[in-house]
């Protein structure tokens, strides 16, 4: 039973730690991805950006940009920041956003001593009118509104409480069954 509870908690926590980013039709966003290690040897690094359908968005192979396998939907719309690679920043800028861009993006970083995956969720809104026509730079500095973060935290907290309640009920039922097991037809079994 404790193994089950641990697994449930890990799953809930990993869902909550995914990064939400908000963008607007026709606008641009920066999808964050970084390595904790700095002063990296670029020749030892591969970074693969993939979308929700596992299509290639952008690749950095041995520290060099590669768009050979890039899905046509991202041609001339995806770019990175090569001057930031040595500092471990492999974020991706996606421009001219459209509704089909919404969803999950994965960044896979591999190098000689470590490998890592980051997941970013991109949400697309229809217009910037709601945000007072912010510039692209302002949009990227505020990847999600405060209400988005509150919603995510509330969902995570509610999910944890529901799971804890379900575990409590299951333990109660199991304990009750065990305490009633010695009795068969109103008599104590030998």
From TrEMBL:
Transmembrane segments: 149-174
SUPFAM superfamilies found in the cross-reference section: Immunoglobulin
One Gene Ontology cellular component annotation held by this UniProt entry: external side of plasma membrane
Keywords recorded for this protein, A-Z: Cell membrane, Disulfide bond, Glycoprotein, Immunoglobulin domain, Membrane, Receptor, Signal, Transmembrane, Transmembrane helix
Ranges where the Ig-like domain occurs: 2-119
Signal sequence, start to end: 1-23
InterPro entries hit by this protein: Ig-like_dom, Ig-like_dom_sf, Ig-like_fold, Ig_sub, Ig_V-set, T-cell_Activation_Regulation
GO biological process: cell surface receptor signaling pathway; cellular response to lipopolysaccharide; immune response; negative regulation of T cell proliferation; positive regulation of T cell proliferation; T cell costimulation
Principal subcellular localisation of the protein: membrane
Keyword Glycoprotein: yes
Membrane topology: Single-pass type I membrane protein
Subcellular location, record wording: Cell membrane
Protein name (record): CD276 antigen homolog
Annotated organism of origin: Sinocyclocheilus rhinocerous
């Amino acid at each position: 039973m404790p193994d089950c509870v641990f697994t449930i908690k890990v799953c809930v926590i990993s869902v909550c730690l995914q990064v939400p980013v908000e963008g607007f039709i026709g606008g641009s966003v920066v999808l964050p991805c970084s390595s904790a290690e700095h002063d990296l040897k670029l020749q030892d690094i591969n970074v693969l950006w993939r979308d929700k359908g596992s299509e290639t968005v952008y690749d950095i192979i041995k520290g060099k940009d590669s768009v050979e396998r890039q899905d046509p939907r991202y041609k001339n719309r995806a770019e990175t920041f090569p001057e930031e690679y040595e500092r471990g920043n492999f974020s991706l800028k996606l421009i001219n956003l459209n509704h089909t861009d919404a969803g999950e993006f994965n960044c896979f970083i591999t190098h000689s001593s470590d490998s890592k995956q980051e997941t970013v969720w991109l949400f697309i809104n229809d217009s910037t009118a709601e945000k007072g026509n912010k510039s692209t730079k302002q949009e990227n500095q505020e990847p999600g509104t405060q209400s988005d973060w509150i919603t995510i935290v509330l969902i995570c907290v509610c999910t944890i409480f529901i799971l804890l309640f379900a575990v409590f009920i299951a333990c109660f039922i199991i304990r009750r069954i065990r305490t009633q097991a010695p009795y068969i037809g109103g008599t104590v079994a030998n």
